[in-house]
Design brief:
The protein is built from 6 helices and 13 strands. The chain is α+β, with helices and mostly antiparallel strands.
Length: about 300
């Protein structure tokens, strides 16, 4: 065993052990440990692996020219490739959803639909093909992007999109934990945004103590305050196009951690989110047309 470790290299053995721990965190432990492990695997280690791979390629060429043993350099490069591999999932060359299930990720919540008119699911559901921007991250595993006709029309005018300025209503009973309405709405298709979420309302759900996030609201449209109690149907604000957004839409997702206390939005445990009082499935998928029940 000692001889094998020496051949592979002590540092390589430590790195391989660390990688195994991260994958165990993702597949077997889950929760916040899984969220951090997934982020390290997809966003941090690939860049370290790429740098290491380039360095070892240079060393390999040098050793090749001097006709020296290259075994250790080859092992180093193989470990670097293991670190680099998850970049294929980050870039969606290998589309892979964050490995969590509705049964394992609890509590799930069933909430009222936040909009009052016919709505189309831009992205949503459990499968990558239906929810590509969200399902590949732990925090947004069961997130939705909601739009209305007309949408996806390549107009640079926000007012041309059906969901623009529509009222957003509270889907749950709870306490408003955070709001923001100071970010300007961007031109559709623009990358000139200041934050990922844009303007938002976050609600701590009374029933579970978990959090519901509603993002990309219109500038100066939020009508609730931090600490205010809300119930289903209460007006929260209006749909805008603030933050990292390709066109006007409403983003909504459910997570365990308080979003105001997480280091980065992706470092949270996303939880299942179902809707009641709508036509069709309670967990609608991309392309579904939703008709909320009117009361």
């Amino acid at each position: 065993m000692k001889a094998a470790i020496q051949k592979i290299g002590y540092i390589n053995c430590v790195v391989i052990g660390f990688l195994l721990l991260l994958w165990i965190g993702v597949f077997l432990i889950g929760g916040i440990v899984g969220a951090y492990s997934w982020t390290l695997l997809k966003l941090v280690l690939p860049f370290i692996g790429a740098i290491g791979l380039l360095i070892n390629v240079v060393f390999f060429i040098i050793l090749l020219s001097r006709k020296r043993k290259k075994t250790k350099v080859v092992f180093n490069a193989m470990v670097n490739l293991l670190m680099f591999f998850p970049i294929l999932m980050t870039m969606n060359i290998i589309p892979f959803a964050y490995p969590n299930t509705v049964e394992h990720a609890q509590p799930a919540v069933t909430v009222n639909f936040p909009l009052r008119e016919q709505t189309v699911i831009g992205w949503g559901g459990q499968q990558v093909k239906d929810n590509l921007p969200h399902a590949i991250w732990s925090s947004e595993r069961w997130a939705y992007d909601l739009v209305m006709e007309p949408f996806n029309m390549n107009s640079d005018n926000n007012e041309d999109y059906g969901i623009w300025n529509k009222e957003v209503h509270s889907p749950v009973s709870g306490v408003v934990s955070a709001t923001y309405e100071g970010e300007a709405d961007i031109t559709p298709g623009s990358e000139d945004f200041h934050s990922l979420e844009g303007n938002y309302v976050y609600i701590e759900i009374e029933e579970t103590g978990t959090y519901l996030l509603l993002n990309h609201l219109k500038k100066d449209s939020v009508v609730v305050k931090v600490g205010e109690k809300v119930k289903p149907g209460d007006l929260l604000g209006r749909v805008g196009n603030s933050g990292s957004s390709s066109e006007p839409h409403l983003h909504i997702h459910h997570q365990r951690q308080n979003p105001t206390k997480t280091i980065h939005p992706v470092l949270a445990e996303g939880l299942p989110l179902f809707f009641e009082g709508i036509s069709g499935s309670s967990m609608p998928v991309k392309g579904d047309s939703i008709a909320p029940e009117t009361k």
